[in-house]
Amino acid sequence: MPVALWRTGLLLSFLTLCVCLEEECVIGIVGQSISLPCFYPELSPFVNISIEWRRDDEVVLRSVWKEDGNVEICSINRVTVSRDAPVTGNFSLKVPTVDPKEGKIYYNLFIISPGNQSAPLCTVCLRTAASFSSPLLQREAAQGDKTVFLCHSSGGFPKPAVYWLINDTQTPPEGSVTTLTASLPDSRLYNVTSHLTANISKESSVSCVIENLFMKETLSSTSYGEKGVPVATRASEAMWVFSTALCVVVGVMVLAGVVYQIHLDRISKKKKKQYQHRGYRERYRPTEETEVMKPEPKETDV
Questions:
Q1: What is the dihedral angle through the alpha carbons of 212, 218, 223, 225, rounded to the nearest 10 degrees?
Q2: How many angstroms separate the first and last alpha carbons of the chain?
Q3: 182: exposed, middle or buried (Cβ count in 10 Å: 0-12, 13-18, 19+)
């Protein structure tokens, strides 16, 4: 196994292991809704319950269940909880739209009582993510004896891991890759553009890989060398010629079969007519011969 491939595999395995060892977080897709789970059935028999959902130190929802059955809910960004949460024990926080935010976001549920600050009943870790577009890979004009490749992907979150492969196994020379990641001001999603400038033969294939660890997505695009193009073209042309020849042969065989069948039909009709004519002649021939062979009576003198 090439050393470059081994190093790449080891690095990816290390990154994946780090992610797995981290605290498990709920992944929220940017622009979509999500429910942050929290179940606490021990509160169901109580009345006059007040709760707070906090995002870090900010209160995002306060809800009060009174003895008379009224429920008061005050929230920001339209987050909600179920109105029958004390009965069902489901205090999950429903977030209508996930916004892109770097790092982990912690949501905590507290029971509020006068003069008493309880420990959080639930703590939920949230990470936000969004899928990148399929990378667009282009081979640009050569700079001297070096070839330039451009790889672009957009609309993802957070910043992705970008790497290149030559002939599916080799990593580019050190210093040959330049990658720029820019945040879009309106959506705060990322566009990534990577350049590879190296002395690469025209026959070599080059792949650009975009990896989003939190989305568990790996997107790639490959530019195949010029060596592979004529082979594919010749194969396509050969297949077209073979298909055309096969159609012609089948057509000739069908036409020959039709002509032969017509010939057989004509012969059959001719034989049928001959047989009918022969039967007619044999039917009337004995009568004629009898009439011919019947002797005429001789006259005698009495």
A1: 130
A2: 139
A3: exposed
The residue behind tokens 């977080």 is: 25
What type of residue is 70? N
State yes or no: pLDDT of 91 exceeds 90: yes
Question: Which residues are CB-contacts of 102 (< 8 A; sequence separation ≥ 6)?
Answer: 158
> Which residues is 94 bridged to in the sheet?
35, 80
Q: By CB neighbour count within 10 A (0-12 exposed, 13-18 middle, 19+ buried), where does 109 fall?
A: buried
Share of the chain above pLDDT 90, in %: 43
Q: Evaluate whether 40 touches 186 at the Cβ level (below 8 Å).
A: no
pLDDT score of 15 more than 90: no
Q: C-alpha distances in angstroms, 131 versus 60, 156, 227, 234?
A: 27, 5, 33, 38
β-pair partners for 53: 61, 109
- Encode pLDDT of 128-150 as tens digits: 999 999 999 999 888 788 999 99
**Whole-Å CA distances, 160 to 10, 151, 233:** 18, 13, 36
Q: Is 132 helix (H, G, I), strand (E, B) or coil?
A: coil
**One-letter amino acid identity for 117?**
Q
10 burial level (CB within 10 Å; 0-12, 13-18, 19+): exposed
| 193 phi/psi in degrees, rounded to 5 | -130, 130
**Backbone dihedral angles phi then psi of residue 32, each to the nearest 5 degrees:** -110, 165
> Rounded to an integer, what distance in angstroms lies between the CA atom of residue 297 and that of residue 234?
100
d(CA 178, CA 4): 18
DSSP states along 233-245 = HHHHHHHHHHHHH
